[in-house]
Amino acid sequence: MAKNNYQTPTGMHDLFQKDLEQFAKIEQLAKKIADFYGFEKIETPILEFSEIFEKGTGLSTDIVEKEMYSLKTKGGDFLTLRPEITPGIVRSYNQGGMQNLPKPVRLWYLGPCFRHERPQAGRYRQFNQLGFESLGVGHSIIDAITIQIFYSLLKSLGFKKLAVEVNCIGDSQCRGAFRKALTNYLRAKSSSLCADCRVRLKKNPLRVLDCKEEKCFMVKKNAPQCLDYLCKDCSNHFKGLLEFLEELEIPYTINPYLVRGLDYYTKTVFEIIEDTEEGKAQGSLAGGGRYDGLVKLLGGKDTPACGGAMGVERVVNLIKARTKSQVIDEPSCDVYLIQVGELAKKKALKLFEQLRQANIKTGEGLHKDSLSAQLGSADKMKAKFSLIIGQKEALDNQVIVKEMKTGRQKNVDIDKVIKELKGKI
Ligand code: AMP
Q: What is the domain range of residue 397?
């Protein structure tokens, strides 16, 4: 059913305080890690020229073919709401002359991305990516550190059962031979592929390995593996990466069919998932790899690079499921301010401000008149004390301080009530 215009667009969500608190915590942790490894934070525009993604992410990828939110501006520019952030980072690296900085240039980011995907668990049309990119160094130790960063970030966020999958998909030297072997194999099986994959077979056969359809999964099981076609350089690079991962004691598995959905990857690709039922339902928490050709492709000098991105919503979803926390906390307070009568309302309003200045978390029903309704709210908000100003108390400049747990109460002068409360809450 079509949504009306008074709801969020399909696949987009409001973020409430609980989510935002998790976001802030994740960002804080990321900053700590970034500072340690020497990553500088960068914010690139949410809109970029469409060409950056068409060229970078790749014309035959699902993202560019089906999922981009693109528009033509009044000035005639073709812009796209970024579906991912790496191409924008590379654009900025080239535009800002960062190639002259000491290598690697390390940048990190956190911000919204937009993909017009079919919404499902862990798959949104607006979501946030947190990423780390290292530009300028081709050594596999950079790939290992990239994986280590995401792995330790997720560990610090309390993820215990993490599965790291890695693969090497070759480079311009060896990809051709693998592509040929894969195409021949898939052509012979094309009648068993889904409709999308029959198209992919013509345009970009590696994409078939990415398909989640059961039919294609069966075909994929016996397909040629990229690892058997690697040139010496790629093979050594992969061997080096695995040794570093072992040294770092990161438990990994090699998934020879992991290719990832973007065109620019060379050599290393990786994904991290939570190895639980809920985790698998969300999909990969983080993923990335090496993209040695992208800087040049987007107009820069030949520059190796490696990076990855984590989906913040997926991580928050799993943390919330784990801690069973609700999206919005029931409001709570230390004291609840109750008043009955017009004069009491005025005195309570003044006292309310004094309580705020004294940093005492105060609930109130200043708009209410009924004593029992206000006492009910005090209970609901789990107040330790109720401060009650009735008509008599208002005239006597006093407040009844009632301890909610015991029901004990005493009268206190209104200007002494804050002193009375301090130390008790
Ligand atoms: P990618 O840019 O496709 O390599 O994705 C990197 C990470 O972003 C994934 O591992 C997910 O955690 C997250 N991600 C990608 N697409 C979505 C989406 N549609 N909704 C939520 N998170 C996503």
A: 335-422
Q: Does ligand 1 lie within 6 Å of residue 88's CB atom?
A: no
In the block, residue with structure tokens 């073709």: 78
pTM for this model (two decimals): 0.87
CATH number for the domain including 357?
A: 3.40.50.800
With a cut of 70, say whether residue 3 has pLDDT above it.
no
Interatomic CA distance for residues 282 and 107, integer angstroms: 27
- The response to whether residue 362 sits with its C-beta less than 6 Å from ligand 1 reads no
- pLDDT, tens digit, 9 for 90 and up, residues 153-204: 999 999 999 999 999 999 999 999 999 999 999 999 999 999 989 988 988 8
CB atoms inside a 10 Å sphere around CB 288: 28
Q: Whose CA is nearest to atom 4 of ligand 1?
A: 287
Domain boundary among 295, 323, 351: 323
Token reading at 321: 């499921």
Say if residue 207's pLDDT is above 90: no
For residue 312, the CA-to-ligand 1 centroid distance in Å is 9
Q: Is the CB of 129 under 6 A from ligand 1?
A: yes
Q: Is the CB of 287 under 6 A from ligand 1?
A: yes
The per-residue pLDDT for 276 is: 93
Q: How many residues are there in the chain?
A: 425
To the nearest 5 percent, what fractions of the chain are helix, strand and coil? 45, 20, 35
Q: Ligand 1 atom 3: the closest Cα is on which residue?
A: 261
- How far does residue 24's CA lie from ligand 1's centre (Å)? 19
**Residue 9 maps to a domain:** no
Q: Which residue has the tokens 């006093």?
A: 398
CATH code of residue 105: 3.30.930.10
The C-alpha atoms of residue 226 and residue 237 are separated, in whole angstroms, by 14
237 lines ligand 1 (CB under 6 A): no
Tens of pLDDT, residue by residue over 368-413, are 999 999 999 999 999 999 999 999 999 999 999 999 999 999 999 9
Indicate which atom in ligand 1 lies nearest the CA of residue 124: 20
Residues 279 and 373 grouped into a single domain: no
* pLDDT above 70: percentage of residues in the chain: 98
Q: Which residue's alpha carbon is at the smallest distance from atom 8 of ligand 1?
A: 311
**377 and 313 co-located in one domain:** no
